[in-house]
Amino acid sequence: MSFKRKEYYTIVDQAKDNVPGFRDAFAKFIERVTIDQNSKSMITNYSRSIALVALHFGRVPHAISVDEINSYLYRMSVHEKQSASYFKQAVFGLRHWFRLFGLEDHALKMPMIKNIETLPVVLSKEECRELFKAPRLLKHKFLLALAYSAGLRMNEVRILKIADIDLDRKQIHVRQGKGKKDRYVILSNLIASKFLFYLDALKPTVYVFEGQTPGEPMGERSVQYVINEALQKTNIKKAVSMHTLRHSFATHLLEDGVDLHSIQRLLGHTRIETTLVYIHIAQIKTKLAHSPLDTLYNLK
To answer: Model confidence over 169-183: pLDDT tens digits?
Structure first.
């Protein structure tokens, strides 16, 4: 068999070409998870994990016994030192696959996934200023500052359209965020004051941050490159990603006295429990308990 160029010959492509029956079964899987409106990133991660299992055994996953799969997952975790993220994606992906092919008993016998409660990395305000100053290009400075200023996810800022910026109402319309939900977030006064200058200088046509092709958004890797390059020019030693800016946004708002429900709405969290994590990070000065009757009459 002649292999395609390496950069385009994905793990899924290899499984389609080398595992009997995988191509047709995978097409059925993609059809189902797409109809179920799963996110693109989730589909990509599950597909890769499932393809790796199929390639390892040389069989489609529903033709592999649960004992074989559990042994494979054990080896990947203990001996191959695969990340917890890989283990989680493999288990969830296989559950989807088994249920699609009527193997509910297989799905139920998959390992339990324990939620490991870790606190997110957060930048200080001083570190944020250092990071935003680091890029040489205006486009890169603006991208990092805008993402932080509104608490946007990477893909939300990446596909943000010029038409979604409302300078008069000082709002940003985030379309089809996580969970396919729209929401409005605050447009920073500083960003608003520089926005027309930015448009005149960069001349984007549709998206605020366009890639090499006019009218097309920046790719995910390009956005990741922007923040990684900026970090190299700073003294910041923390493990920082684009999502760190979102965590920093929420933490700094809480430290500035904004209530949790407002932060939950701005972040687009469905459950307040998701937002509560920032209480454990924010440096908030506690106040001694007192009677509201005394403050009502200005008595200390």
So the answer is: 999 999 876 767 889
pLDDT, tens digit, for every residue of 216-239?
Answer: 999 989 999 999 999 999 999 999
Whether residue 136 lies in the annotated active site = no
Contacts of 186 (CB under 8 A, 6+ apart): 149, 150, 170, 171, 172, 266
Is 297 catalytic? The answer is no
Measured N-to-C along each axis, helices 66-78 and 84-100 cross at an angle, to the nearest 10 degrees, of 170
Per-residue pLDDT band for 286 (boundaries 50, 70, 90) equals: low
Residue 275's nearest CA partner among 256, 250, 258, 240 is 250
Residue intervals in the chain for CATH 1.10.443.10: 125-280
To the query of whether residue 246 is one of the catalytic residues in this protein, the response is yes
CB count within 10 Å of CB 72 equals 17
Sheet containing 183-186, strands listed edge to edge, beginning at the edge strand earlier in sequence: 165-166, 171-174, 183-186
Name the nearest CA neighbour of 116 among 75, 96, 87, 76.
87
The CATH classification of domain 11-108, taken from the options 1.10.10, 1.10.1740, 1.10.150, 3.30.40: 1.10.150
| Span 200-212, average pLDDT | 95
pLDDT at 1 over 50: no
Confidence of residue 2 (pLDDT cuts 50, 70, 90): very low
Which one is catalytic: 153, 173, 175, 265? 153
* Architecture of the CATH domain 125-280: Orthogonal Bundle (1.10)
Active-site pick, 95, 246, 247, 252: 246
- CA dihedral angle for residue 84, residue 34, residue 246, residue 259, rounded to 10 degrees: -110
CATH 1.10.150 boundaries in the chain: 11-108
